[in-house]
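PROTEIN DESIGN WORKSHEET
SECTION A - STRUCTURE
LENGTH: 360
TOKENS:
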């Protein structure tokens, strides 16, 4: 049977009403203490007709933060704030996961008062982070990170599992481990950002160790049926070009499959960094991973239907289309029209460019 975007699908123990996913998108609208509030609940509940929402990247600790105004999931106040969001989405029959985030070296001490940490003390060249100081927003270059000790790595693995439990307490249906887009897990995977000489670096097996330890810890904390992982095999932004990345991602995918994680989410485009993914890679991934595969990056209705028909993926994410079209499912059913995406309000600000896009 050929999969269709509008078909329902089972994800672990939950039923999704369609295969349309709203992927995680940082929108930088939290209150003091990195706490989500009513405006975030409005934004996500407007989009609750998606089969699955994956809420924006959310730091698992203060150290994990790389940009101002991104939400956290490590204080009671943050958990309470997220309850507003999950309650509003569930009230409309939606399902919502939370993306768990550690930025590693993609940070600046002006964000959280700390020197960034990384597998190795290597700067991410030509990489900026969004910082608000004294009410003024600026993009600042990342700071030189310091190398994590093995004890610190083990503590971060624990931070992921605590954050995952917090997310479930906040009412999320599951969590997505952010293993892509140049952040901490991706920094461990790649030979250009990971020059460690211990069990976390050197060979591909060693570079894959961190993502598998994190996945195992999260699976043990909240269950494999509530654990997804996002990886970004072809993306090179944030100084992440690495000739060995495909081998590392393939090995990581097999390990994640052995841990029975409920989905693997391919990040196929990070803004303009949108390389073509060869069919041969998709075939290999489908063979390596038994549970659901989500693909996100430059899809429209037609490309999404074509991709589902190949059988290589099970669900499709639509990022920028979801910023501009809260009722994207209904618009797809009508084959449009679509609101135009405005540049205002992508990161930070108020309801303008956030909750003010109209329904059909
Ligand atoms: C404003 C914005 C914020 C984003 N923030 C995140 C994020 O927090 N986590 C993540 O994994 N990807 C993030 N992304 C990437 C998207 O999830 C998605 O992969 C990307 O937009 C490509 O899909 P599209 O072409 O359908 O927009 C972001 C993208 C945009 C446009």
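SECTION B - SEQUENCE
RESIDUE ASSIGNMENT:
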């Amino acid at each position: 049977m050929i999969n269709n975007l509008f078909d329902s699908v089972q994800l672990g123990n939950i039923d999704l009403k369609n295969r349309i996913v709203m992927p995680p998108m940082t929108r930088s609208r939290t209150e003091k203490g990195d706490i989500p509030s009513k405006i975030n609940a409005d934004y996500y509940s407007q989009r609750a007709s998606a089969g699955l929402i994956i809420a924006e990247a959310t730091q698992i600790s203060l150290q994990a933060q790389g940009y101002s105004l991104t939400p956290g999931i490590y204080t009671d106040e943050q958990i309470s704030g997220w309850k507003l969001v999950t309650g509003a989405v569930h009230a409309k029959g939606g399902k919502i996961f939370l993306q768990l985030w550690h930025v590693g070296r993609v940070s600046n001490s002006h964000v959280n008062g700390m020197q960034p940490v990384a597998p190795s003390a290597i700067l991410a060249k030509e990489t900026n982070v969004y910082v608000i100081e004294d009410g003024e927003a600026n993009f600042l270059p990342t700071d030189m990170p310091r190398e994590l000790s093995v004890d610190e790595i083990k503590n971060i693995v624990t931070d992921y599992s605590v954050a995952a439990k917090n997310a479930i307490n906040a009412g999320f249906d599951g969590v997505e481990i952010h293993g892509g887009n140049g952040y901490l897990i991706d920094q461990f995977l790649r030979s250009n950002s990971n020059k460690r000489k211990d069990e976390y670096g050197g060979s591909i097996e060693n570079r894959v160790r961190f993502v598998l330890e994190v996945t195992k810890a999260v699976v043990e904390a909240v269950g494999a049926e509530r654990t997804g992982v996002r990886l970004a095999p072809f993306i090179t932004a944030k100084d992440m070009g690495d000739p060995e990345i495909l081998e590392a991602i393939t090995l990581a995918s097999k390990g994640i499959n052995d841990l029975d994680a409920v989905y693997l989410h391919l990040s196929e485009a990070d803004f303009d960094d949108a390389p073509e993914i060869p069919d041969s890679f998709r075939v290999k991934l489908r063979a390596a991973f038994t549970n659901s595969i989500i693909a996100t990056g430059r899809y429209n209705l037609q490309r999404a239907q074509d991709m589902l028909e190949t059988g290589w993926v099970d669900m499709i994410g639509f990022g920028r289309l979801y910023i501009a079209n809260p009722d994207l499912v209904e618009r797809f059913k009508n084959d449009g029209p679509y609101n135009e995406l405005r540049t205002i309000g992508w990161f930070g600000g108020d309801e303008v460019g956030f909750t003010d896009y109209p329904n059909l």
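SECTION C - NOTES
The mean pLDDT is 96.
The pocket of flavin mononucleotide is lined by residues 23-26, 56-57, 99, 178, 180-181, 230, 267, 269-270, 296-299, 318-321, 346 (CB under 6 Å).
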